[in-house]
Amino acid sequence: MSIFRRETDEPRPAAAGPAATHTPPPPAPERRPNPASAAAGTTHIAPGAKITGQVNGNSDLVVDGELEGQVRLDSNVTVGAEGKVQGDIVARSVRIGGRVVGNVQGHEKVEILPTGRLEGDVAAPRVVLAEGAFFKGKVEMTGKPAAAAGASVPVAAAAPPKKEAGA
């Protein structure tokens, strides 16, 4: 008797006796989470794995391995005690228990745990720095969960004016 059952499993016929053979049920169809859902699941980078590149999306991310590149998520990022991230992180909430080298922006909160190490700037409405955590950088406590530091300055205004040739 099965105590776990999926809706897609077919009912199994009762065994006719010891000579009856067991036929496994057909594989369940692949279920994909709705990408618009914030609870679409969690992406996990396991210990020993190294990922290089850009991570975008709206599922939670847990880094217990190594990640080299930019992270931009609409959900939560957790860097485990053995996790390492080299690159900027922009997410709703960021918890650092491992090592991060790069700037971190949290739309709601950034938390550096006692085992965490952050070398980079932080921008978030709420910043938590636990006793024993390592932090090297600056903190910008944003009043609203919006733009990153310097994003309000137009690019054209930030660039020096061009000089004309012969002037």
Mean pLDDT: 77
Written as H for each helix and E for each strand, in order along the chain, the element string is EEEEEEEEEEEEEEEEH
- Residue runs with pLDDT of under 50 for 5 or more positions: 4-8, 28-39, 146-164
Distance between the termini: 90 Å
Counting DSSP H or I runs of 4 or more residues, the number of helices is: 1
| Quaternary class | single chain
Q: What fraction of residues sit in β-strands?
A: 35-45%
DSSP summary, beta strand count: 16
The percentage helix is under 10%
Radius of gyration: 24 Å
Largest sheet, if any?
A: 10 strands, parallel
The gross shape turns out to be globular
Estimated structural class = mainly beta
Structural write-up:
With 167 residues, the chain is mainly β. Mean pLDDT is 77; it is low at 4-8, 28-39 and 146-164. It has a domain at 42-143. The protein has one helix at residues 155-158, and strands at 42-45, 50-52, 55-57, 60-63, 66-68, 71-73, 76-79, 84-86, 89-96, 99-101, 104-112, 117-119, 122-124, 126-129, 134-136, 139-141. It starts with 41 loop residues before the first strand and ends in a 9-residue tail after the last helix.
